[in-house]
Amino acid sequence: MSIDTLQRFLLDELDIRGAVVRLGPLWQRIVAGRNYAPPVAALLGEMCATTLFIADALKQPGRITFQLRGSGPVSLLVVDCDERLNLRAMAHAAADVAPGTAPQLLGDGQLMLSLDLPNLRQPYQSIVPMQGDSIAEIFEHYLGLSEQLPSRLFLAASAEGAAGIFLQKLPNADARDADGWNRVESLATTIRDDELLGLPCDELLTRLFSQEVVRVFPERQVLHECPEDWDKVRTMLRSLGREEVDAVLREHGEVLIRDDLANRDYRFDAAAVEALFGETPPTLH
């Protein structure tokens, strides 16, 4: 398995499906220059791996966005992924965050889902309470509610990479092997963080499920494409109006628009603002 990929697998004789994610250089690009404290980066990396699993399993092409909002030192985690597995992510947190469990870091809060599909007039949204001591447990609870299928997540993240393994019990699993799910769960709990982050997929699955029949599917490349969109920013500023934009310019000497998900700033000085409102905005036909 290459790095920055997702690879599905199926335990054929047990009717249990799963996937493995390993992120390396792509993950490093996501967090570059953000100066996240290690506990914040770990939460965000684990949430990235989890979102990829869920985005890959969507029955229709679309964009899925998860937000974890809480009252703790980590106030917000956002991960966004589309059908191409184009991944973007960001966090809002205090400058100095000590290690702790997810409830200690996030506080009381909610997990919010937004799902944008081509056949929906507006995105589908869902909000559930955060329940669990880790990102894995929070999303296992969510999957239990949304899909009503037992699911397990085993996740790890560091400054260098993020990784995870996903398991889900399909409806016929008990008929195929009454002890199969318990056996697979027990085996998966033995995986160490260094193995998740470092072992190729085939070696990882062999290490875990050497006595099972494992069918591995072609890997999918994970992307991190965040092209500049000056037209969108200009349209947004025009919608605010000249008076409000000029007020910001007078106070700060420039107008700064921050795109946290893309980790990019858009800056407008006085000349750029003058040009912005002097331009004829595009018309819609």
Describe this structure in words.
The protein has 285 residues and is of the alpha+beta class. The protein has 2 domains: 5-221, Hsp33 domain (3-Layer(bab) Sandwich), CATH 3.55.30.10; 230-278, CBS domain Like (Alpha-Beta Complex). It contains 11 helices and 13 strands. It has helices at residues 25-31, 38-56, 102-106, 135-146, 173-176, 180-188, 193-198, 201-208, 230-240, 242-252, 270-278; strands at 5-11, 16-23, 63-70, 74-81, 87-93, 109-116, 124-129, 151-157, 162-169, 214-216, 220-221, 255-259, 264-268. The strands form 3 sheets. Strands 1, 2, 8, 9, 10 and 11 form a 6-stranded antiparallel β-sheet that branches. β12 and β13 (264-268) form a beta hairpin. The radius of gyration is 22 Å and the shape is elongated. Pfam families: HSP33 (PF01430). Keywords: Chaperone, Cytoplasm, Disulfide bond, Redox-active center, Zinc. This is Hsp33 family molecular chaperone HslO. GO terms for molecular function: protein folding chaperone; unfolded protein binding. One of its GO terms (biological process) is protein refolding.
